[in-house]
Amino acid sequence: MSKGNIGVTSDNIFPVIKKFLYSDHEIFLRELISNAVDATTKLKTLSSVGEVKGDLGDLRVRVSIDKAKKTLTVSDHGIGMTAEEVDKYINQIAFSGAEEFLNQYKDKTEAIIGHFGLGFYSAFMVSKKVEIFSQSYKEDAKAVHWSCEGNPEYTMEDTIKSERGTDIVLHIDDEFSQYLEDATIEGLLKKYCKFLPVEIAFGKKKEWKDGKEVELDEENIINDINPAWTRKPADLKDEDYDKFYHELYPTQMDEPLFHIHLNVDYPFNLTGILYFPKIKSNLDVHRNKIQLYCNQVYVTDEVENIVPKYLTLLHGVIDSPDIPLNVSRSYLQSDNNVKKISGYITKKVADKLAELYKADKEDFAKKWDDIKMFIQFGMLTDEKFYEKAKDFALYKNLDGKYATLEEYKAQVKDAQTDKDGNLVLLYTNDPDAHYTYIERAKAKGYDVLLMDGELDVHAMSQAEQKSEEGKLRFVRIDSDTIENLIRKEETAKDTFSDEQKEGLRKAFEGLLPSAEDKLRYFVTCEAAAADALPVFLTQNEFMRRMKEMSAHQQGMSFYGQMPDQYNLVINTAHPLIQELVAKETSEQVEEEVEKKAEKEGEEPKKETVIKTVCKLEGEDERIKQLIDIALLASGQLKGEALAKFVNRSVELL
Ligand code: ADP
Description:
Blueprint: E1 2-5, H1 13-20, H2 27-48, E2 61-66, E3 71-75, H3 83-104, H4 109-112, E4 127-135, E5 143-148, E6 153-159, E7 165-172, H5 182-192, E8 200-209, E9 212-221, H6 238-248, E10 258-264, E11 270-276, H7 282-287, E12 291-294, E13 297-300, E14 315-319, H8 329-334, H9 336-359, H10 361-381, H11 383-389, E15 394-396, E16 402-404, H12 405-416, E17 423-428, H13 435-443, E18 448-450, H14 456-466, E19 472-476, H15 482-485, H16 498-510, H17 515-520, E20 521-526, E21 535-538, H18 541-550, H19 557-561, E22 566-571, H20 575-584, E23 585-586, H21 588-599, H22 606-609, E24 613-614, H23 620-633, H24 639-652
Parallel strand pairs: 2-8, 12-14, 17-18, 17-19, 20-22
Antiparallel strand pairs: 1-6, 2-3, 3-7, 4-5, 4-7, 5-6, 8-9, 10-11, 11-14, 12-13, 15-16, 21-22, 23-24
Helix pairs in contact: 9-10, 9-11, 10-11, 23-24
Bound molecules: adenosine-5'-diphosphate.
Adenosine-5'-diphosphate (ADP) binds next to α2 and α3.
């Protein structure tokens, strides 16, 4: 038996392992099983090139718990290690990388926690003692037994081991007794080992028989050694992809909309399958995330720094040995390989979408509502994706017809270009609330888009900014009179004098239901059209949009805090308003002004007195009714005001 010191310079490395990696103890199992799988794969390789002769026999990796001895054992039938190799790989080298890393990040705990694998030594996170029993595949090699109790001293001696391969025996610390529970270990194996390329066995298969769980003879195999992403796309049918999707996310009931099989080997290695899910709620997005693997070993489902943010809405797997895992997250973002990978995935996703769109436009349109948020998110955050996606991003009108922006522009160009050459696209986010406005637009032969998605306002602003010479404008159907939204020729001038209009304005303003309403509704006069409502509400497109966008963006809270404001437009072209003014316009003012001037001993100025003023005396009820109708048409008449309106209407009848 030999004794020695593990080749590390810092004595305190073991406490450091325990302390620094506190939040991620469980990865020890992944590390040990990865080593076992590597040793098995190496053996297969050696056999395939003829260096290992004969039948390789049983190659399963087995994980077992001995509750009495408080041990957890990982056994493989891989290449094994000779005493020299244990000395070299375990005593000397294995640790140097870890030590270097720990020195570098001593003060940054969070940088270490996470993806950094300590390899074999992570076993000491949960064990008071670790033993290795190994028999190398090499002829004449003696089996070796290594043992270490979580300090820099180890012992090594010859031993007898009947089978080729390695057993790693962990004597679990009392503090970590959960790792002696079947359920915990099975859970971890399912998390980290589900798709490893060598079979992992844990206990026996169980079955329910007569209301009891009974053990079968058959071993319980944890993993699928040939997951779909490692196979050739040509060998897979749509059903296989769907099946694999459910293997990945057992609780997900819906089928994915479509998938993309990724496969590159230059300039980096990457395989994987991405799925477009039916996103029903935010919850799905957070639960079923893209899983990152490294040679079929599960690493993490925190892929934010590896794929662009909008792609994290997708589901699926990415497997790449070229993503550096043992570095801090902020470093990942600046890593060149990671940047290339992210660019590649963006391109693949965009190309696939373009291909689906070209292949079957109707089918693509059917899926649009489900993928829209994802594509808009991508277009808004990634210029390269925007460039590709603008050719298949769709807009839907109120008849449920879909078109790309270019197609749609061509369709409505003739009718909806205003006198200044701006193409005005009309939209609604609430067809019921905007019913009257929509009807008026349709009557003029205009088309109206349905834009009720979460990112629609942003998408429209982007399309406007990208349009040539800024000649494209989206306006919500209720943001002004339809005549003003798409101005065709100089709008008809009304016949009222400024004073008459001011009189009208004052009269209406004075009769708004409440004091707050004076801040909320800004009363104006406009000659809209004889067949429009006599009084109606509009809301400025710019202000409203800023407010909506501020809900999603930081630094825009100024807009978010502003109250909603509307224009209460008195339609001076409407017969009712004209009648009101005609009846009430008087020239009494002339006398009054004259009297006043006399009193003050002045000559009345003729030109100021001969003015017609709209006094609207005794018309309060009618005006109130007109205001209420405008509010009602916009769904803003509620509560007491609504009750009053109903009563007044009955009285008027
Ligand atoms: P890494 O796997 O990253 O190289 P580890 O500390 O996990 O680092 O292992 C160090 C080395 O020990 C491995 O590279 C391998 O040569 C050897 N080793 C570890 N476990 C086994 C095993 N089960 N069978 C054979 N060799 C092993």
